[in-house]
Amino acid sequence: MTYKTLLLDKKDGIATITLNRPEKKNAMSPQLHEEMVRLLDDLRYDDAARVLVITGAGSAFCAGMDLKEFFTDLKPHPQEYDRIWRIATEWRTRTLRYYPKPTIAMINGFCFGGAFSLVEGCDLAIAADEATFGLSEINFKLFPGGSVSKSLANLLRPRDALWYGMLGRPFGGQIAAEIGFINKSVPAAELLNETMTVARELAQKDPWALKATKEGYRFSLEMSWEAAMSYSSAKEMELVLRQGDAWRTEGIGDFLKGEYRPGLEAHGSKKR
Ligand code: ACO
């Protein structure tokens, strides 16, 4: 499968997807949305992709929706506008949120508007200190539409969501980390190394346990205590089936043999 708006690199179990419209600051065009849906579907079943990293080519991570190709060009075509609106919101939110593999947003530069939902949909997010974030919608007389308002409500404290949403002021990577929108911010020169270190660490962990970790967290958010306990118990049984009980036989088994200390290191990473 070839893509015009995306680049794909696979190495050491890590699939790096690069939004590749640098001349348009990686704004998300209808074609980019369609290609991303296909690529995420491909990687879902690709055993060589244990962890996904999403980043941008050139000076931008993603300048949000393509203001011309989406909002302007599709205005006379309401059905096509609706179709693209639906897939654009779906992949950045539900598809990424419930993706069966860990996902990391590596924010290398400009990150505006609709790109906030992409970042929120990823499990982890690491930015360059030099990156520029902004809810720019208000600056052009819009509001954080599509899935963006929900992404803000999911991740940010009310004061921060309304401050940045209503003022539209840009902010850097360190502020993005301080307000909890991302995990951490590092100098641009260290961004790739820092992100790949985290990705490699995830790629070494048991994929079924990682999937259960994501799902346990994400689905519990919307469940009653009773439902969450029942779900968790069922998940434990699913894990036993999926892994062949490796968490008990190998994970706990090797600890009980004194071979490693799971409080301090991952199974298989080090022997005492
Ligand atoms: N949609 C479409 N085209 C875009 C977008 C966008 N979101 N962002 C940048 N571009 C295009 C520019 O029109 C320009 O195209 P051209 O060379 O054909 O004229 C090219 O990318 C480069 O952009 P410049 O403005 O020349 O680059 P600069 O470095 O000066 O500024 C910046 C970059 C800050 C990203 C600026 O382009 C900008 O403010 N873009 C809009 C950001 C935005 O508000 N995004 C929408 C968020 S809301 C939402 O997603 C629903």
Automatic annotation (TrEMBL):
<dbReference type="GO" id="GO:0008300">
    <property type="term" value="P:isoprenoid catabolic process"/>
</dbReference>
<dbReference type="Pfam" id="PF00378">
    <property type="entry name" value="ECH_1"/>
</dbReference>
<dbReference type="InterPro" id="IPR051683">
    <property type="entry name" value="Enoyl-CoA_Hydratase/Isomerase"/>
</dbReference>
<comment type="similarity">
    <text>Belongs to the enoyl-CoA hydratase/isomerase family.</text>
</comment>
<dbReference type="GO" id="GO:0003824">
    <property type="term" value="F:catalytic activity"/>
</dbReference>
<dbReference type="InterPro" id="IPR001753">
    <property type="entry name" value="Enoyl-CoA_hydra/iso"/>
</dbReference>
<dbReference type="InterPro" id="IPR029045">
    <property type="entry name" value="ClpP/crotonase-like_dom_sf"/>
</dbReference>
<protein>
    <submittedName>
        <fullName>Naphthoate synthase</fullName>
    </submittedName>
</protein>
